Amino acid sequence: MKEVFKYTFLSIAEWKKFLIVVLIVSILTLIEAFPVISIAAFLFEKLLYLSIGVFLIYILKRSSTPEIYYENLQKNHISTFLFHFLPSASGILLALIIIGFFWFMFFILILQFSGAMFILVNPHNFLNALATTTFITKILIGFYLIYFMFYSYIFLGKFGEALNKEEFKTAFIAMLSSLIDFKGWIKTFNLKYFIIFTIWSVIIFVIYTFTAFVYIFNIFPTIQTHPNFTLIIIPIFVGITTILSYFTYFSAHFAYKAMD
Question: Structural domain tally of the chain?
C-alpha cells in the first residue's frame, strides 16, 4: 500500500500539472451552473480526470522506480498529460454510465416484478414502506443489496484493469465486464487486495464525509451571505477531489495487480 501513497504524492509534487488540472476543473465546475451546457461540462470534466488516470498508470507501467516515474511525468507536455488518453477515458466513462443505468433498471425491475413500485412514492419513508412489502420483494431487494455490496468490493480492481487499457474498446470491455467477470471476482479474495480496498475505502469515506459536514455546517452558510466566497471554495474542493482521484487511480492499479 505504501506504493499507492508514494506515487500519489509524486504526482501531486508535479505541482504545475496539478495546478493546471485544478484550474481547468474549477472553470468547468463554474460552467456547470449554466443549465444549457452543464451536462457537457460535467461529462468533459469526468473524461479529463479519467484521461489523466490512464496516463498516470501508463507512465507508472513504464517506470522501473519512483524516481524515473517522476522524471517521465515531468517530461511529458501538459497536452499529453490531459488529453492523450481521451479515447480510453471515453470507453471507461461510457461503461460507467451503462453500469449505473444497469443498477438503476435492475432495482426498478425488481420493484415492478414484485408489485412494490409504491415504495418510491415517498423516498424519505423508504424503510417503513419496504417493511409493508411482500416476502418475495424483501428477498429480491436483499439479493440486490448483496450483489451490489459485492460488486462495490470488486469494482476497484476492475477499474484498475480499465485504467491499464490504452484504447476505447479494451477500456470499455474491461470496465463493463466488471458486472459479470466471475473469474476476476474470485481473484479479489486475497489479503493484499483486501488491504488495499479497505484502506482506500476508509480514507475516501472519512475525507468526503468530513468535507461534506464542513461544507453543510460552515461553508454553505458563509456562501449564502458572501456569494463571492465560492470562487475561493471551488478550487479548494477541486484540489481535494484531484488528490483523491490520483489516490484512487493508484489504489485501483495496485488492486488490479493484486488480482494476478
Answer: 1
Terminal Cα distance for the chain, rounded? 16
Q: Name the helix (H) or strand (E) containing 5.
A: helix 2-13
Mean pLDDT of 35-45: 87
Residue pair 73/17 in contact (Cβ under 8 Å)? The answer is yes
How far is 135 from 58, CA to CA, in rounded Å? 49
pLDDT tens for each residue of 157-209: 999 999 999 899 999 999 999 888 788 888 888 899 999 999 999 999 999 99
**Residues listed for the chain:** 260
Show the beta-strand stretches assigned E in the chain.
Answer: none
Q: How confident is the model at residue 30 (pLDDT cuts 50, 70, 90)?
A: confident
Closest CA to 59 of 14, 26, 21, 25: 14
Name, in order, each residue with C-beta under 8 angstroms of 35's C-beta and a sequence gap of 6 or more: none
Angle between helix 15-31 and helix 230-257 axes, rounded to 10 deg: 120
Distance CA 12, CA 67 (A): 14
Quick one: pLDDT band at residue 118, thresholds 50, 70, 90?
low
Nearest-5° Cα angle at 111, 108 to 116: 140
- pTM comes to 0.89
The three cell numbers locating residue 9: 504524492
pLDDT (tens digit per residue) in 225-234? 777 777 788 8
CA 30 centroid distance within chain: 21
CB 117 within 8 A of CB 126: no
Domain span at 57:
2-257
